[in-house]
Write a sequence for this structure.
């Protein structure tokens, strides 16, 4: 189970019968031990001020992840113009967008008179942002195969580092699959051996689409063939013998959509300059991590997941020679088809990802994504849903039904544009795109019914594209986006100097907000309907989709909180994320793409919404679930969709889904840390809801106009200290610090650089926030908040073993007595399960009902044992903590 030392650092301590934990922890021992050491250093200030950043600069592979090979797991290596997509057994397919070159690439080893299949010897996989390696081990040799795709090149490189006692030769095999991405296609294609290049030449009759696959040591080529009597679909070549010792072999793959000369040039460049290209690609990712918002967190797993999520989002940036540069949705092998997962451009995927890009300060790629999608806006203002990479070769928008299939992409476009402009301060882009925004709004208005709600009938789907949840007239999700688009457009109008229009749109927004919430609210059940049917009847199917309007703060806390508490129960929330609907629903199926499965996208929506409404237990559990997914499955990436019954990705899932990675970043920055930058008004807000065992974090590279900020947060039982400084720029900015404290805790005084400053305390249903505003220019600022009776609880969730059902604890609600001397927790957990909560601020004289309390590894701990039950898999239980002494309550009191 997880334990904590006196400094608050996560450590590994495996003991029987204490908590429900994943059996796969042993597989992650190396990672966690490293993380524990790092966390301890960060918590105790060793190596301060920037342990992680300094290590990143000193070691180019600090984001390296390694484990024993899982042959079935997806292994992608991508650049902006090409990709290698395969699995951990070493089987790969190659793409130079939008052209597929081959599939089923694999190796065989010739050693001591035997021919050995490489996949049978695959032992360890190691991934880095710029490459991935598989280590093969035989009795007398090892071969490390490294896959590498340069960031900007139309090709890829495979490096083979050999160490052997006996003569060894490697043979490379593949199936020619020379075709354009779906739905485009080439005519007849062919393959020839080019002796001068020591490579196979791929061609077609127009001589426009060309590829080379070969090696400077390639020999003994064997090409595919077909006769009246026999055929061979594989082609292969050998790489020359290694007699003994160490040697590096090289395979290069190059493609062109503009004839042979371009492919030959790229092929030669890869052969000659691969070492420099590899170095440049590693630096590309390091520089990206250095210039976007970086965090130092005491949880090494969440830390690493955050950094990998930024890398994964960046890997979604693709340049198509005919269409331009934008964000694709994700990656998966295509097999014998021409569809590599969702490796084409999607509207709503780009917009949800852009929220994470904006939060992390990557304004360039966010703008690129918005620009790309807006380029294909329909004449009536509708925003595209998806654009295949083969779209320029067919009449995509007229002959296929997919281009404008969704209705939600249009309001999301307006919302995403506003988010980008506010975070970046790029009002010029809003002015440039105003006509596009106006047309999008006019289209949105044209979809309203008589009541003023956007319809899906005859317009396009909302979130749900098919399955038993349909048909509906409009979803709460869809109507919520329509309302938020009005607020976004009002703000954009103000930012572009259109004040009167802005005021009119704000009035429209307030009316729309009330209409949407009233139309879907089911008062007696304290939740929002999933949708309205064709007769405007509420479809009472509670769904995580309701957290999207909550993400934007549309419902009141009085309405949102009780629904969040329902969604936090075991029928909606699994150990690996949020189901789209309850598993108690008659419509539910764990494998249902839109009626039962778990999407990390949903999990991220829920986490941000839960933090917004101060429901921190489910918020952190969902955040942590997505973070752990980034370190499992396809290493460094987050899958598209998982079973709603068992911890297992769906068989059709894209294992490297870009908006899934975004839903690691947004819950951390927008949710847990409450980081909101407004470059238009030179203001930044930090409103952290931290686990009780987190005593420090730091955030840097927060872009605010021409400024860049750094925050360093430290907490003890007696105080919170926030250190702030500008690391770039000198323009005066405003910082609003709003740390969450428990309802029992009192803020005694606040000092800025040693001098008292005014503050407020805002009381919510589940916590309080100390609110302090102060201006900053150059220099350092130290804000100190003195606390009395500080208290907090946290729980560390974990993923179950692959294929298992949920077993984790759910904390559904926290209720304080009026005098703040009693806290009641409603929890649910697996029947017979045992759990622990880490507590800060317990003095030892408290009385705990329904659980046991004590000390462990320097921390106060509450142990919860769920009763055995044959009738309920996840029974409920109440835990009551009685404190000695009452605490007063003062709401929004100025100090």
């Amino acid at each position: 189970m997880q334990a904590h030392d006196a400094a608050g650092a996560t450590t590994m301590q495996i003991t029987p019968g204490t908590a429900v934990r994943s059996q796969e922890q042993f597989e992650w021992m190396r990672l966690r031990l490293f993380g524990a050491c790092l966390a301890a250093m960060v918590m105790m200030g060793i190596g301060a001020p920037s342990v992680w950043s300094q290590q990143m600069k000193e070691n180019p592979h600090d984001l390296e992840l390694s484990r024993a090979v899982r042959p079935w797991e997806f292994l992608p290596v991508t650049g902006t113009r090409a990709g290698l997509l395969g699995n951990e057994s070493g089987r790969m397919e190659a793409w130079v967008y939008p052209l597929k070159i081959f599939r089923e690439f694999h190796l065989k080893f010739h050693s001591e008179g035997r021919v050995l299949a490489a996949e049978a010897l695959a032992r360890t996989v190691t991934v880095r942002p710029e490459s991935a390696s598989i280590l093969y081990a035989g009795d007398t040799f090892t071969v490390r195969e490294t896959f590498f795709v340069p960031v900007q090149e139309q090709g890829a490189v495979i490096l083979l580092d050999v160490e052997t006692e006996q003569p060894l030769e490697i043979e490379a095999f593949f199936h020619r699959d020379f075709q354009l991405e779906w739905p485009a296609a080439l005519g007849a294609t062919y393959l020839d051996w080019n002796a001068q290049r020591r490579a196979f030449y791929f061609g077609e009759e127009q001589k426009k689409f060309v590829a080379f696959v070969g090696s400077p040591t390639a020999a003994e080529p064997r090409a595919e063939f077909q006769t009246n009597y026999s055929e061979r679909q594989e082609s292969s070549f050998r790489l020359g013998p290694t007699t003994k010792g160490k040697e590096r072999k090289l395979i290069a793959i190059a493609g062109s959509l503009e004839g042979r000369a371009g492919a030959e040039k790229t092929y030669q460049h890869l052969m000659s300059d691969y070492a420099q290209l590899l170095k440049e690609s590693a630096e590309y990712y390091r520089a990206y991590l250095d210039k976007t918002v970086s965090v130092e967190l005491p949880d090494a797993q969440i830390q690493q997941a955050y950094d990998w999520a930024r890398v994964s989002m960046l890997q979604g940036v693709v340049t198509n020679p005919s269409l331009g540069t934008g964000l694709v949705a994700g990656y998966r092998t295509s097999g014998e088809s021409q569809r590599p997962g969702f490796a084409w451009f999607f509207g709503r995927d780009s917009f949800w990802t852009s929220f994470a890009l904006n939060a992390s300060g990557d304004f360039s790629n966010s703008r690129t994504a918005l620009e790309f999608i807006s380029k294909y806006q329909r004449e009536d203002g509708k925003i595209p849903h998806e654009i295949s990479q083969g779209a320029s070769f067919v009449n995509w928008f007229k002959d296929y039904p997919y281009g404008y299939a969704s209705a939600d992409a249009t309001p999301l476009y307006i919302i995403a544009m506003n988010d980008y402009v506010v975070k970046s301060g790029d009002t010029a882009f809003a002015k440039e795109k105003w006509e596009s925004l106006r047309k999008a709004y006019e289209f949105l208005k044209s979809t309203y019914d008589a009541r003023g709600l956007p319809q899906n009938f005859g317009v396009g789907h909302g979130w749900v594209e098919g399955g038993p949840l349909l048909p509906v007239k409009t979803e709460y999700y869809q109507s919520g986006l329509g309302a938020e688009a009005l607020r976004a457009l009002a703000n954009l109008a103000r930012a572009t100097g259109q004040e009167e229009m802005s005021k009119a749109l704000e009035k429209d927004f307030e009316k729309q907000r009330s209409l949407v919430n009233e139309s879907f609210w089911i008062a007696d059940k304290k939740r929002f309907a999933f949708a309205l049917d064709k007769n405007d009847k509420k479809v009472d199917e509670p769904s995580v989709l309701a957290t999207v309007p909550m993400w934007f703060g549309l419902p009141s806390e009085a309405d949102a909180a009780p629904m969040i508490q329902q969604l936090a129960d075991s029928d909606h929330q699994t150990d690996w994320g949020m189901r789209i609907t309850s598993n108690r629903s008659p419509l539910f199926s764990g494998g249902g793409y839109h009626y039962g499965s778990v999407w990390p996208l949903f999990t991220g929506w829920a986490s941000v919404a839960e933090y917004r409404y101060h429901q921190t237990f489910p918020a952190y559990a969902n955040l942590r679930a997505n973070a752990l997914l980034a370190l499992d499955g396809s290493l460094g990436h987050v899958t598209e969709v998982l079973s709603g019954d068992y911890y297992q990705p769906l068989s059709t899932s894209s294992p490297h889904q870009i908006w899934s990675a975004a839903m690691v970043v947004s819950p951390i920055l927008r949710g847990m840390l409450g980081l909101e930058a407004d470059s238009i008004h030179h203001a930044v807000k930090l409103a952290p809801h931290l686990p009780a065992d987190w005593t420090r974090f730091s955030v840097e590279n927060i872009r605010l106009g021409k400024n860049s900020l750094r925050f360093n947060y430290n907490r003890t039982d007696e105080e919170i200290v926030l250190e702030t400084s500008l690391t770039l720029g000198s323009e005066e900015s405003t910082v609003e610090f709003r740390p969450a404290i428990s309802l029992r805790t009192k803020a005694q005084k606040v000092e800025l650089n040693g001098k008292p400053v005014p503050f407020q305390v805002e009381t919510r249903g589940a916590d309080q926030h100390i609110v302090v505003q102060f201006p900053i220019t150059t220099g350092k600022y130290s804000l100190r908040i003195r606390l009395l009776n500080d208290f907090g609880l946290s729980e560390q969730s974990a993923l179950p073993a692959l294929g298992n059902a949920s077993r984790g604890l759910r904390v559904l609600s926290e209720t304080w007595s009026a005098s703040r001397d009693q806290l009641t927790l409603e929890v649910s957990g697996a029947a017979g399960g045992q759990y622990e909560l880490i507590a800060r601020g317990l003095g030892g004289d408290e009385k705990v009902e329904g659980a046991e309390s004590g000390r462990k590894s320097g921390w106060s701990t509450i142990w919860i044992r769920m009763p055995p039950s044959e009738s309920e898999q996840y029974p409920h239980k109440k835990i009551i903590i009685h404190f000695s002494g009452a605490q007063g309550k003062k709401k929004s009191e100025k100090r």
